[in-house]
Amino acid sequence: MGESFQSIGRRSGLRIPDHRCLDRARPSTCCGRKRGSDAQAIGRSRGGLSTKINAAVDALGNPLRFILTAGQVHDINQAEALIAGFDFDKLIADTGYDSNRLRAVIAATGGEAVMPSNRSRSQAIPYDEDVYKDRNLVERFFNKIKHFRRIATRYEKTALSFASMLSLVSLIIWLK
Predict the structure, then answer these.
(1) Which residues of 8-24 are buried (b: 16+ CB within 10 A; e: fewer)?
(2) Nearest to 166 by CA among 45, 59, 48, 41
(3) Beta strand 48-57 with 43-45: parallel, antiparallel or unpaired?
(4) CA 142 to CA 56: how far, in whole Å?
(5) Cα 168–chain centre separation
(6) Alpha helices in the chain (DSSP H)
(7) Helices (H), 42-158
(8) Residue 118, Cβ neighbours under 10 Å: how many?
(9) Is 105 exposed, middle or buried (0-12, 13-18, 19+ CB in 10 A)?
(10) I need a surface site. Which of 31, 42, 97, 128 has the fewest CB within 10 A?
């Protein structure tokens, strides 16, 4: 009689081990995260996937340099790389680029920062509002590239392909 009750108090050997049972669908934990989206400048937000284009333009509104980042990355993270190697008297930027570190870098190159102060500053830093009106050249550049549907909707999966299409569009803008 003892032989027929051997499995009381323990599980039979025919069951699937607990560590192999999946009680709900989820991504695998071996990699820690999905691969590739961070390296491809694709950011996630409540509105969906997005890519941010940080651009530097000349006094005529022609593109000089651009850097792609994920949509949730702040503008100031790319500012120093964006202006590296350029000689300028005045650098016009929007409020998103306002930081003490960037202002120090601009002053070290001998330029003047023309950007409104961030609201979080206790004292606003004065700027030349007449010169700041020329920032519309950057906005007009972004308006021009959005006329190209491939750029506006980002058909490309990889950042390299998207950057190459952006370079091609920039070339077309330079040639006009």
Answers:
(1) eeeeeeeeeeeeeeeee
(2) 41
(3) antiparallel
(4) 11
(5) 20
(6) 79-83, 100-108, 129-132, 136-145, 149-153, 159-175
(7) 79-83, 100-108, 129-132, 136-145, 149-153
(8) 14
(9) middle
(10) 31
pLDDT tens digits along 19-40? 655 566 666 555 555 555 667 8
> How many other CB atoms sit within 10 Å of the CB of residue 135?
16
Length of the chain: 176
d(CA 86, CA 59): 13
pLDDT tens for 84-139 read 999 999 999 999 999 999 999 999 999 999 999 999 899 999 999 999 999 999 99
Note every long-range contact of 97-105, with CB atoms under 8 Å and residues 24 or more positions apart, other chains counting. Answer: 98/125, 102/76, 105/80
**7 token code pair:** 């499995």
Q: How far apart are CA 53 and CA 43, in angstroms?
A: 12
The whole-angstrom separation of Cα 39 and Cα 41 is: 6
